[in-house]
């Protein structure tokens, strides 16, 4: 009887142990976590208690916080502080892409808790002010172990020339500025639209904006892939003097190839974006209006039943009923 009872207890203990082991996440999960986007991390932490504990206890996934769509629409100061606190003061990358609800106060609180941030990318954060950005950069650069490598501030309202100069004074010594200028790669309009903002330093730029040579405003200034313009750039010692190296407000650029587009070369598209003649010819057209869509607006195309072509949503709404087409 005692032996039988002992066997039952031993068997029961093994079953409980197996259940506990079965409930633990696989070790491979911890290799994957640092590569997951923020949205997936947050969703995973809500699945079950073992996953929640695994995500909470592993600090590596929280060292680089990158907030993009669709999270950016709901990201507030309170949520940012809660997420950033998971890094335990060791946050390295803070990329808030078009987070319109983040304020100077929220950004400052995160900087105070994480003074070792080396990438601060806040493009399109329209609730931030130039003074708030400068205050954050100043605090990061004055830390004894300062490691800030790049900032991205395109889309911050009311950024003036003097603000940009102040930021440069914190980030760059004369020697470092010369080194950066030698490593700079061209910034092409069509590539920038597809480029991940938090990898900005790969282009050799510490600050993404500069003074436009034409309008003298602080904006993104783009180079041109057109061969004639590149030849001018090579022939001139100062590449900023090329005729078309300026912001997109001062010269139109093709959404597909990024080249500067003169008035006689501009072609109509279904969307409001600019296309050059060469790209317009290559793109497929709407079967009704003979207008193409740029790469960003292929969602405006409606497939026609029994046809390999497509119809733009404007023509669809104007001429056709829903029975004739399918999305």
UniProtKB/TrEMBL annotation:
This is F-box domain-containing protein. It comes from the Eukaryota. InterPro entries: 4Fe4S_Fe_S_CS (IPR017900), F-box-like_dom_sf (IPR036047), F-box_dom (IPR001810), F-box_LRR-repeat (IPR050648), LRR_dom_sf (IPR032675). Residues 18-65 form the F-box domain. It comes from Corchorus olitorius. One of its GO terms (cellular component) is cytoplasm.
